[in-house]
Design goal:
Helices cover 38% and strands 12% of the residues. With 242 residues, the chain is of the alpha+beta class. α1 (3-59) crosses α4. Residues 1-20 are annotated as: Disordered.
């Protein structure tokens, strides 16, 4: 007569083990869900944070973008006598520029246009088009591969360029990459270069056209603001051409 009682006890033990196993499985499921949720939030945060930072940079005033003038590691301006005014070469012809980057020289008959203010490595026009922009009074910001590989610094360059979006003559500004294929590295380990083609002062005898360079370690809206103020589009061989 004791056998039914033993069977009942055995079933109770088995049922208890099943309940405990289910509870353990639920706990594991909850733990997996929690871990997956945390991982998903981290992944989302990694994508959203850079966008928020880029939006914050883009919304800032020009002078507040990037490093301050005192922290951008800028060198003194360099000037050289400029040549190449109206020296148009056939599109596709090979033109070698000695300076890194060029601030003047022979160029193609066409410019890189007025609408685009920022170019990446993949879509930048050839150098002779950009040199023609310089002849028309554009200020160019050149960024090297170190900046191109730094998402934060590149976002600052884009934000600086965006401040010049418009169709006014004062919006003559383009940010473009400089690569190893283009020529030698910027001097002094700089990663940013600003260039301008100045008409000089025709009223002063012997005052020829000049190329102007400003090299810096980091993007700086404050430096750019001063540079374009000191070297406006009107100080160029062909200021009214687009």
């Amino acid at each position: 007569m004791a056998k039914p009682s033993k069977d009942k006890d055995r079933r109770a033990v088995v049922e208890q083990m099943r309940r405990e196993q289910k509870r353990a499985e639920k706990k594991r499921s909850y733990a997996i869900i929690a871990v997956c949720s945390v991982v998903a939030l981290v992944i989302i945060g990694m994508g959203v944070y850079p966008l928020l930072q880029q939006n914050k940079v883009a919304a800032a005033d020009l002078e507040a973008i990037g490093a301050s003038a005192g922290q951008a590691g800028c060198q003194d301006e360099i000037t050289k006598s400029a040549v190449g005014n109206n020296d148009h070469r056939q599109v596709g012809s090979d033109i070698v520029y000695q300076d890194a980057p060029p601030a003047f020289g022979p160029h193609y008959p066409e410019t890189a246009g007025f609408d685009r203010k920022f170019f990446s490595v993949g879509d930048r026009p050839e150098l002779p088009y950009l040199v023609h922009n310089l002849e028309h009074g554009y200020n160019l910001l050149w960024y090297d591969e170190t900046i191109a590989d730094d998402s934060g610094a590149l976002a600052e360059v884009k934000a600086i360029a965006k401040k010049f979006e418009g169709d006014k003559l004062t919006d003559k500004f383009i940010a473009v990459p400089w690569t190893k294929e283009d020529g030698k590295a910027f001097p002094g380990g700089a990663h940013i270069a600003l260039t301008h083609w100045s008409v000089g002062d025709p009223a002063k005898q012997g005052k020829a056209q000049e190329g102007i360079w400003k090299y810096c370690d980091a993007p700086s809206g404050e430096v750019v603001s001063t540079f374009v103020e000191d070297h406006p589009y009107s100080d160029s061989p062909e200021p009214n051409a687009m």
